[in-house]
Structures
1.
Amino acid sequence: MTAAATDLPSIQTVRANGLDFAYFEQGQGPLVLLLHGFPDTALCWRDVVPRLAQAGFRAVAVFLRGYAPTDLAPDGDYRIDTLARDVLALVEHLGRGEKAYVVAHDWGAPIAQFAANLRPDRFEKMVLAAVPHLRRFFLSPTGAQMKRSHYIFKFQVPFWAESTLPKNDFEWMVETLIRKWSPGWEFSIGDIEPIKANFREPARLKAALAYYRNIPKIMVNPALAKVAFAPVTVPVRMIYGTEDGAIGPEMFQHQQKHFRGGFDLCEATGRGHFMQYEDPAWFAERVIEYFRTP
């Protein structure tokens, strides 16, 4: 099932951690909070949310801080600890005091890990997709991964991304990032246009880049590093694509020691970075299966 460009969900808002967060939801039951990554929006979940709802969950897909129509941070704060506290506040407001399940892709995954390390008592289980544990990613990358991460280094250069990404209707973003990250994904205008629309606003593009430009703070701030690199004690299923051009399959091996609450590594064979777009039915089944397992 692939949503057409006009089949956009009804957007609601909730006040959390000082900002108005936009989200869409479906279903009743235990809360499942879905977090997107870059370059993306919460609409990446629009074919997953109905399946989770049908399985008996209340699936809530959130537009992260700075991504339209969620508020921009008035103070420009996009540090990982602030992003994690956004998640904790959303769980508090949307979860009615109960523990939440989390599904997180790309940037959503490290944010969810950090939130779990701040307050493990707020979460039942997590499914993290396309990004390994932060200690594995930052402190022991392979040589091949250093090459794949070229864009992260480029994003640190002032104004490079701001001038490069919008050129030719975001050709570099689509062709150099999205297409190479998921070579098997036959995306449509309906998939890509919401992403472009968000980044056409200079303030939104700057906000998304700020996620990356705050990475050095993790490395040099002992308090942030302590939480970011600590073992996760919430049960985790991690899904990685064998054809992922952003983060190689080898990066997901040998990280069990970083997940002490239970760790299940799940291979998305033949799928790339944007696996939830490529095969939403398969992805949703892996989520439901894990969340239902005692």
2.
Amino acid sequence: MIHELTICAAGLGLSSLAGSVIGLAVRRIPHKWNDVFLGFCAGMMLTAAIVCLILPATAMCTPRQWWQIIAGVAAGVALIGLLDRFTPHLHHLSGIKEEERHARSTSLNRTMLFVMAIALHKLPEGLATGVSFNGEQGNALAITLTIALQNIPEGMVVVTPLLMAGVRFLNTALIAVGVALLEVSGVFAGYFIGDICAALLPVMLAAAGGAMLYVISDEMIPETHSHGFQKQATYALVAGVVAMLFIEAGI
């Protein structure tokens, strides 16, 4: 069992890194395609927040326990809302020179929130995979495959906005590795302390979903609609929703 667990954990981490490598290769793109790309990512995140996080959390609870889902979503929104106030203090992560920071502060703040929301949901995803190995192994492998497929575009989502905001290549690569390792650590934690993680999993999944919904509504959609390419961004968002639905279905 430990052997299969290690392989699945490594697979999740490598799939996330594979997407990040693709994103690192893209580097800079025209503003129109930036809005289209972010719109597509917003659609994928919207579907992931509801279908992959909030709905599974709801399925783990009885109707009388749904207060946990409400509390989790509210906690995720509150957490990112608080981070929204403190992201100016995170500029040292960017590697951008001090004289350039003021001009780029809004874009960088938005990007850091964006990456934090993605990183935040990696841990409960890893926990969910690890907990599943305490049950039927076939289900655990199916969950791992679904999350691995999802990790590839999400890996791109982590690095591309950072590069476009001016974050140094090395710092961006280190962030991508950190996000991947967060999910891997969640897999092992979920397996070895399965009972505790299983009890906390609904709230954690709901919190991650709430955090992603906050970022999508407050940051991503307004950004993609502020440069005259809102139609293209909207079409891309719909395409992102459909793409994530197919990925979640395992197609």
